[in-house]
Amino acid sequence: METLLLNRDAVDANTQMAEVIRAVEDAFAAYARGDAQMPAKSYIDLPQYNGDFRSMPAYLEADDWDAAGIKWVNVHPDNPESFDLPTVMGTMVYSNPENAFPLAIMDGTELTMKRTGAAAAVATDHLAVEDATTMGVIGAGVQSYTQLEAISEVRPIEEVVVSDLDEERVADFIEYFEDDFEVRAGSIAEAAQCDVLSTVTPVEDPIVSREDIGDHTHVNAMGADAEGKHELADEILLDAKLVIDDHAQTTHSGEINVPYHEGVLTDDDIYGEVGDIVVGDLEGRTSEDGITVFDSTGLAIQDVAAAHVVYEHADDNDNGYPFDLIGTGTQ
């Protein structure tokens, strides 16, 4: 048996977004049913290098497949300037849960972008208005691209408003998507009036006010992934049907972490977890709902689900590099 090495291009080629969305939805369902194991994300803090490592292991059992893996990921903000490297890099080890053989080692950076977009799409499918045709994007970095790619799989998006302080990023985003959507630059308020809004910024002081948000907008709050980060005004969270991916992670480092620890927002203000909606234990959007918010921190089960899709398509697409990592002998 050989282990498959899959670089960023191979991961991209093997992640058909519609299939990743289905796999991530399966993962949320497995977690809600108790058919997943996901130890808490662990951190190695390296202040001497202005960075950290994070390990994210998980196992999940879906209806007709199961999978296991671990993602090793960093955040080093000085990397681009000091080393000409990305701020965030990830490596995914994907294993056979039956015998623990490492089936693949793959780029986790592209994988993370794909599964993050897919998670937003799952939430959007259950929480946005059915006829959503407009989408706002606040933050035009790398994560913004898969937000639009994924959400347009579940809603008939036609018009897109993108807002970012970096005009070059906005121009790049528009150029990338202009053949497929009516996409333009706009203010935060203009983006927030759309049927669906994805926020993908690293800010610690909210940039979206209650007055900005449309009456029936669904918001995917994707940017907060550490203590102190906070994109949406507290009033939005308090007025919305608030759905989270995982209680422990969102209260620690999600969009709700600041108002939760300040006592502004409590468990009574949280409608439930997205997995409970997926399995039907809770309702998604109803006719009575106005604003809905999905607080996404990113779960290891999503990485494993996306890695499952990548690996299953690797042979079909004949990409990747097989190599003998373990050897065939037994000990």
From TrEMBL:
GO terms for cellular component: cytoplasm. It holds the Pfam family OCD_Mu_crystall. The keyword NAD applies. The active site is at residue 71. One of its GO terms (molecular function) is NAD binding. Its EC number is 1.4.1.1. The keyword Transport does not apply. It catalyses: L-alanine + NAD(+) + H2O = pyruvate + NH4(+) + NADH + H(+). NAD(+) binds at residues 115, 142-143, 223-225, 229, 296. One of its GO terms (biological process) is alanine metabolic process. InterPro entries: AlaDH_arch-typ, NAD(P)-bd_dom_sf, ODC_Mu_crystall, ODC_N. Keywords: NAD, Nucleotide-binding, Oxidoreductase. Catalyzes the NAD(+)-dependent oxidative deamination of L-alanine to pyruvate, and the reverse reaction, the reductive amination of pyruvate. Belongs to the ornithine cyclodeaminase/mu-crystallin family. Archaeal alanine dehydrogenase subfamily. This is Alanine dehydrogenase. The gene is ala.
